[in-house]
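Hey team,

Filing this mostly as a record. A colleague (T.K.) asked me to run one chain through the structure pipeline before their review meeting, and I want the input and output archived in the tracker in case anyone asks later how it was produced. No errors, nothing strange. Just documentation.

Input sequence:
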Amino acid sequence: MNFNDQLLTWYQHNKRELPWRDTDDAYIIWLSEIILQQTRVEQGMPYFYRFVEKYPDIQHFAAADEDDILKLWQGLGYYSRGRNMLKTAKIVAEQYNGVFPDSYYELIKLKGIGEYTAAAIASFSANEAKAVVDGNVYRVLARYFGIYEPINSQQGKKIFQATADDLLNKQAPGLHNQAMMEFGATLCRPKNPDCFICPVREGCFAFTNNAVHNLPVKLNKVKIRERYFNYFLLTDDNHLLMNRRDDKDIWANMYDLPLFETNGLLTIPELMRSAEVLEYFSDDTKIAEISAVKKHILTHQRLYVRFIKLRGKPIKYKPGWQYTSLENLEKLALPKVIFIFLKNIFNF
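Output structure:
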């Protein structure tokens, strides 16, 4: 059997039973694809079920408030995905009469849908002959065909897409794409791939040339930005001073605490004497408690987060600051690091 026949035979016997594989509804497939971007299936599954339950169709999703979407998305990361989904839902409701498009040409126009996602939705829902190339497919192609071009170079992207297009089973493109992605996710894994039970190992360049752990090649272009966050905790009876973030930085439009970001890790006296802090708090503000510094890792950023409990009130307020009742905390969309900290204190 050739590669494609062996791949489909393997898939039919080894595929995981996943809810979005039992439908050709483009809306449901879109939900699953966006949720699973940069997310493991095990982590994304509960979110998928929650979104389907609360927003069973595109009309329900389009009518949602952004705060509700962000709250439901809480803990999943990459929050711009949730905001883009709401924008797309509104466009589909208004411009497509509430019918989610299933053609690559229409899908690629929508917010938050790139070439991979458009190809996935079009092939899974309408069997359109578009080859998907995600991280799993890159790995399978690089190892099987011995492609050393970096997967994140412009030339590499062209080579891998062309290879995927040539390999695509035009009679069953949706099934082929699912099989390629599943093969990479469960057998041809980044670490500890199951080469000795692989049905296509005899034709695999990496297996026969002992190069499995050298492929795929990726350029290391991402510089990690280190940031230092000092959060102030202030309560007034049963209310907590919160901050509504703007849309210019991470965690756009979500809620955190009053924040003072510094260029490095300052001592507490240095922080409290800084010009920015003194603009909002008097120099005799009392400190009740100081947390240990916690490291919080994002994709391209490393945050060093410290929480400082103060007594009293600010002498002036930043535009996003507002007191919120403690019983309302569970309704707010909070970044994970804030959610964990506040939940441990207030047990909501």
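Quick notes for T.K.: The beta strands are 225-233, 235-236, 239-244, 255-256, 259-262, 286-290, 294-297, 301-311, 321-325. The longest strand covers residues 301-311.
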